[in-house]
Structure formats: structure tokens, C-alpha cells
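Before the break, one more example. Copy the sequence into your notebook; we will annotate it together after we see the structure.
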Amino acid sequence: MNRIIVSIIVVLLFCHASALSMLNGDDAKKLGMVIWNNEADKRVDLLAYWGSYSSFPEVGIGHYIWYPQGQTGPYTAQFPPLCAYLQEQGVTFPAWLQEAYRAGGAPWQSREEFLQDTQRTNELRKFLASTVDLQTQFMIKRLEDEWSSIRAAAPSEHQERLQYYFELMRSSLLGTYTLVDYLNFKGSGLNPREERNGHRFGLLQVMLDMPDGLTEENITKAFAICAARRLVNYIGQFGPEYKPVKFLAGWVKRVSTYSRANIFESASRSELEING
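Here is what the structure looks like once it is written out:
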């Protein structure tokens, strides 16, 4: 009987969540502005960025990897799929960006080239600032596309609960933001290269950590707590020489936003400031 009730609830939530699959423009922009703040402090100059220790630029509100033409690496490059999605939506690209996309990579072979090419990098930043809502829709599509693999990787006895929690979170804007942002932030949890002494911190692991009996009122709070615990535990697998421990405070601050129902109010104000 309990299984039947849960199945009925999941169906109802699925119908509600389906309406959120693609957010309206205003909600998508709000969600995207918060993610942009998480990744790059809502700074236009950081929409196209090449770190001093990186071999590739990171672009967009999600800081997507874009490998230079002819190069590759261990991480998944999300900018080419984003370009494909934007084209499907009828977005017009700057001519040089269209050519680079067709050529299969960023047109700069080094950070020095990137920093010197201010005309194209500034044009890229302007282009990305004008497509925040569509970049957000792309992130939601990625979540939807990857979720079935994430759920399938869970032990069979937990898959029904994970699906219920997924649909419950997808039925609200705050829950959708939580799932989309964490997947972009720390990945699915399916990549074995992210493991340290048996510990991972992806979306799958956080969802598995969540306790039974959660409701719409407390589910994102529970997610925030479980995510913070995962990140702290992961850091604990390294010795005191592990330099990225300096990022821990920022990581915890980021996941704490999942419990803030008013997070989108500040996003709206920030958008006015940027547009002004």
C-alpha cells in the first residue's frame, strides 16, 4: 500500500515538475543570476576567464570548460554542447565564435593569446551576458538528461526514494536551483576520478545521504546540510598539505544558499544593477 501511495505522489509531482522543465524567461534569468554569482560574483569580466594555472578558458555563467582547438583533457567540456543548444534556440553567434565552434575549440592556444585578444574576449562576454536565461535552460536540460544515469547508479533499494526526492525538488524553483547548481558545481558523482579513499561528493552521493520523510518545506535544507557534510568529509581525506582546503568556506557558503527561500530576491536586484 505504501508503495502505491508513493507512486501516486511521484506521478503528481512529475506533472508539476514537467511544467518547470523549461522555466519561463523571468525565472530562468533569476536562477541563472544566482548561479552566475556563485561561479563568478556576477562579474561580466569573469564570463570569459583563463586562470593562471589552467590550460583552457572557462566561459559562461557556469564557467564551462572550452579546450583550445586541437587540445583535450580529463574534464568534460560543456561549452560546445551549450553552443549547440543556443544554436537550436536560434541564437545568432558572432562570426568568429561560429567559426571557432565549427573548428572544434577555442581560438586561443595560450592564456597570453587570450589576454591579448581583448576584442573577441569582450565580445564573447557581452554575448554570454545576453543569454543568461538560455544558459540556465541548458543547465536544466543537462540535469534532466543525466538524472536517469544518476538514479540508475544508486542501489536498487534507494532508487524509488531518490526519484521521489528528485521530483519533489523539481516541483519548486528553489529545489530546481539546488539540483542544477550542485550538478554544475560538483558533478554527478559518477566519475571515479573524483574519488578519494572511497569518498565522493557528487549529486548522487548527496541524494543518497538525505534522510527519509523529507517534505517540500525542509528538503532543500536537508540537501544543504548533506552537501556540506560531504564536502567536509572529502577534504578530510587529504593531509594538511592539501591546498584546496582554502576553498572549503566558499563551498559551504555556496551550498547554504540552497536553504534560502529569498535567494531570488537578491538575484533580481543584482540584475537591475548590472543592466543599469
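The first helix runs from residue 2 to 20. The chain has two domains: 2-30+147-275, 43-132. Try to locate both features in your own notes.
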